[in-house]
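FORM 7B: Structural annotation worksheet

SECTION A. Query
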Amino acid sequence: MKKHLLLIAVFFTALIAQAQEPYTFDTLIYRIKGWDNVVVGSGFYKVAGLVEMTDGDFMADIQSDMILLDTITNISSYPSGDYFHKISCHGDSITNSRFMEHSQVFGADNYNLLLKRNPVGEGYILVKLINNRVNTPGLGISWVSIQHGDEDLGFENLEDGIMVQVEDDMVNKACNMLLENGENVIVMYMHGNNPVLVRVGLDGTLKDKASFTDLIHSSPTLPYRLSVFNDTPREYAFFDWEVTENDTCLRYHVVDSMFNYQRTIVVENNYTNIRLVHNINENSPDISLYPINPPTMLSLDDGTWLVATQYTRTNTVTNGVCVLKHDKTTQEYLGNAQFQAWPIYLDPINMAYPIGLDKSDDGNVYFAYRTAQNTSYASAYGRVAVVKMDTDLNIIWQRYCLDATGYHQKYCKMELFSGGLVVGGTILKATETTSNEKVFLFIFHDNGTVGTPEMEDFVRPYAFWPNPVSDVLHLEYSPDVKPEQIELYDLQGRLVRIQRKGLESVDLQGLTAGQYLMKVTMEDGKVYSDKVVKE
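SECTION B. Predicted structure
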């Protein structure tokens, strides 16, 4: 197993073409933006693709669509394109960076793309759903494009790559893409109200296409996802929701390897203590809600399948994400793992959401999610959490990344590599504005270990909430660690609390309002420090 360090790669949001400057964890706090006189008017940065390179480093494709205004010259620019970065997991540095400007002729879905090693040759492939916007409104042509790249992050221009026409009109958004048997790419997209599956060979051949009418019950603008449902015989499934009087049922539409419709599975809710989050605003039933990431499915080799989705608890004001397990044949519900989020938001956009769910090298399961998030940049909350579980959903280890009171994370992706997993996304410090977005990258070993002590400052084997806290602070620990004691210090360095029993909670009643330093000591001698605000 390769030795990989945990990294947080924090970039300027306008990295120049060849970046050689090493970064440290300090940049996460102090590096604000790349210009002294430039204001970002609007736009986004998204980690759209992550892939392990042949030398063990990582390539990140960061999609940008920004409007920049130079306050001295008063000239606006529009640097829209793919920022490719090579990130060394050994030297803790960005060793190469290239920018590929988006085509002025073709529009593209620049988030739901596929970045992989080329399975039929050297280098890498970048797959997108693109369209040609013609002058007549509502018309156009849609293609699946395949661009080839090399180890130096050089990708061919869109017009020089492979373009396979899939529609005679314009399709704006792909749902997701799968690499199949090292030969094909399967793309799912919505064409009007109908889901469409296409199989495109890496040689540019359109092999199969199927459109499904009258299947989707929920909004066609919501995010959907295609997954492998069975390996033998090969079947795929995509989902939507069916809203009942009291809850939401997930519906899975199963197709065979040639995209012939087979059956629809309605997963009735018998989860006893949780309800799934559906896509209808309870206060305004005619208004659709748009979660950032859809439920994620994973087929297991034992005849079961997992679903990661948002949930709320019945009879209590709590919610989060959960992983549900079902039997493929009988659809019997076999159990769930719940991951509570704090703070609590009722709008699915702000709630915790799944980032990724996949198999580990040793037959277990990786799960990554983002905790609850306030949309206000001035009061951002949330963590990125990474979990390793066995196939019965017992947690082996869990890690919480970034301070829950200081950072806003969104547009996250999870990918596997040899010996672990990588999670990347954009980040915004709570005291900053949208013009200061940056990008982070976490890399974990199979056993949950991370890199240097400096980097561990941003990873915890426990979570604590609420913060700020009025009376009782709650803590939840990963099963692979055991706490020994908790200490609280005031800003003058005086010890005001010490606790060696009942370390799942700390009573702060009686303490003066203000900021405190909490030190958590584990049995192995490791000490973690966090800021806690007493209201």
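SECTION C. Observations
The chain has a mean pLDDT of 77. The first helix runs from residue 26 to 30.

SECTION D. Sign-off
Analyst initials: ____
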